[in-house]
Request: fold
Amino acid sequence: MKDKKRFLTTFAGICLAVSLTTSFAGCGSKDDGEVAGSPSQNQGDEEKDSSSTEGKLISSNNKKYSTLQEYLDAQKAQIDTMLKQYEDSGMTMEIKVDGETLVYRYIYDEQVDVTQGMLDYFDSSIDGFRQQFDTVIDEISRQVDVKEPAVQLLYENPDGSLIYSCVLTKDDETPTYGEISEGSILNNGEKFADVAEYVAAQKDQIDALLKQMEGSGMTMQIYGEENTLVYRYIYEEAVEVSDENAALLESSLEASRAQFEMIIDEMETLVDASDLAVKVVYENPDGTVIYSTTFTK
Reply:
């Protein structure tokens, strides 16, 4: 099973990239309004107060930061806080600057076999999150005196070998790939018998993901149920079961439909089952269901 166990860590890496980019875009927001996906206005006001003297205002073009490194340095406290939230996630991370490119570098704690399915998954995931990355590039353009801002996502094994890299600019993306492993699951045809077996093989990664939920106001379970991968969220305090709350959850999940469909794509590669699906359930402590939905292809 070891050759087949990396999906959830890979998916966590993609989600982490988006989490960091959308939060990071908000870190630089100033007087002219919030960026989509940025922190609340109150938090923005606090950041405005704490960073009002950071950076060098360039009078010729009204940009706050003269270089991307200066922009990054101004966000150090926020970045350190965000990265700390993802300790024990199965990888280490750093955010750095390479010229006019903001680089998100992810290094897995354990060696990952590079398969064509994994590379295809990275490609489709990046495409699904494209709008969020464009937001970061827009924010850099607005704040920093750069001509061709870009974002690079770089995924590596512990030995330094490349798994996946993608450089994104406002109008283009350039992916590069690690060497596909010989004898990988996609080459030898072996699959998990069902979704439960597939989930069981990811225990360490799931435990790390669940640990991140601590202090969030809810607990989470991930398990297989026949041909369905179930994400079950249980609130620590009762939430009113109402059409309004159900509509809010429905809207939030619908915005993430592309990500759930990518999970189904990956399961179709790794699991020997048909009609695969992802189910998301929100419950109160007494077991009453607040909202539930099932995603299929």
